[in-house]
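Researcher: Here's a chain I'd like modeled. Treat it as a single chain, no partners, no ligands.
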Amino acid sequence: MKNVLVAASALALLGACSKQVEKTEDIRPVRAIKLTASDVDVNAEFSGEVRARVESQLGFRVGGKIVSRKVDVGTLVKKGQVLMQLDPQDLQLSQAQALASLRAAETNRDLAKAELQRYQELRRQSFVSQAVLDSKESTYKAAQAQVDASQAGYRGQSNQAAYAALLADVDGVVTAVSAEIGQVVAAGTPVVKVAKSGEKEIVIGIPEDKVDTLRRVEDVQVRLWADPGKTAPGKIRELSPVADPSTRTYTAKVSIPDTLAEAKLGMTAVVQFASKTPVPQIKVPLTALFYEKKASSVWVVEQGVVKLVPVAIGGVAGNDIVLAGGVKPGQTVVTAGVNLLKPGQKVTILGNDLPVAAPAPAVAGAAK
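Model: Modeled as a single isolated chain. Structure tokens:
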């Protein structure tokens, strides 16, 4: 009886092992977009700062100790206005020394001239030789040359004494002060920054992958953060050929028209670049392309099933590919997981809302 029970148990186990496992349907999860055709080629925005087109770093042309500062940041100045003053005592002493040297040279010159005139009269009476007269003429010419040199030295020292006062070279506003009273500065050290009144511009930083594209854009619009409802046309005045070492962006300067008169230095502004293509284009991410036998295709989703559709490549637009043929707007194209699919494969699209292909997404840039 015991053996019978053991045999029955073994048969039951064998029957359980031989039971076929139910097959599950292979449905791949993918990401996809719905194709659209658009004539928007570039649509990018960058924030920047309003600055004066001309901004000068001013410094004394001579070294010395600062004894007076007559401006602060934000002070409106006129051309020729005194901004700072150095201690002029040493410069005035040098000027006085140069003047004394000039007076001594003039005295020697006058004496040499009078002596030359006497010897010329003696020569007419044949009381002295021509050689003696030539010597007196040489002495006079040397004295005159010494006067000329002393006059040049005196003028130079007079200029040096005048340089003790730092003057504004343009009408504008003081944007920075980097030295204080009592500080000793060397010649040429920047102590005051003055922004020239008049034309302003917006300074922005452009990413390296957008430089060549935005360089060709002619439709440039600017607006102030303080007044976003008002826009005005702008123009790229300057685009740096070298990236900024800290931000790795390329500095661009966009001119502000006179119609944006409310723009003040330091304000935040937005520069928008926009351009259109002659005909609408269909763009897909590079990850949507499937390469097989040197041909490019995309997976089109229809009723939950994919099929491989050959496409013609029309070019590259940033990180996207322009499709010149093979698909049409409204179709759904797989953008991720293309190498794991096969014709007739059932798929499920990740995400509740199917995204629409964005041909030219706006790019936000930070202020420089």
